[in-house]
């Protein structure tokens, strides 16, 4: 066998200093040293004869040991020259049967009074299946249960809820009751809680109840890039190759009722009091961020995590450059190190621009 070939669900992503091998089926990420990544043909196969010819001394043994470990971890297999071209590569198209996939709704008061049957119909027209409700004030029980009932009877597949932790709701077991009664809740995050923990995992990987001591009391808390939020799967990978990995097919309504790409952005496409979601999407400029891929963003285009990482176009390292790296990412792909973004000297211009100097509480 003179070739090593990756399984088609395993993809190589080259960075400036190293590469990642992402197993999109198992959701795992492995690191590959640059000398081996550079030997991959069409990012799929390694010619082992060439590897031995082009590589010097102990490096051959080192690279062959890595390839053996890739085979052991079921990321690829040994084959020959005639065979490897017969294995089809992964289809890299991203197809999604919806005009809008995600909708974020923010409220400072705990109320979303526009969330009525006719609003659910608007979401239905767009085939929007995922909704995130971000409460920066405590929602009255009746009001939230009304919304959850509307969601239950709709095409919406899942809802993620963020809300302030509340002693009365805690002692009344309200959070657990919601998780049990409303099966479309994928996660309920109570922020400002006394401690941080996951209490319960519901059936079919839905219904997480999470407590966090963090204060998520404004849209400015969004946009943090963290390894714990990486998403290694075919949908994220193919979407990030073709579209923006945060804003593509997303719509939001901020605390003022303004319809936007994301609540943290300035551009408004009308107010939900006098504009429909369909009208907002049809306005010039609404889709302008949808096609900005990570391969076009400065620094990210050299990062080996770019196809498992989410993007952020609302908070930029250089606010004047729409292709600038996300402000709230502390990773440097040129030295492969993570650092705290908020204290980084090069981030201070962006931090001042967006008024993020102090926590928003
Ligand atoms: S663009 Fe940034 S702030 Fe807006 S939703 Fe995406 S990650 Fe959050
Ligand atoms: S540099 Fe940061 S934001 Fe850019 S792809 Fe890498 S981890 Fe993601």
From TrEMBL:
InterPro entries in UniProt: Aldolase_TIM (IPR013785), GRASP-with-SPASM (IPR026497), rSAM_sf (IPR058240)
Gene3D superfamilies, per database record: Aldolase class I (3.20.20.70)
Protein name listed in UniProt: SPASM domain peptide maturase of grasp-with-spasm system
Organism: Taibaiella chishuiensis
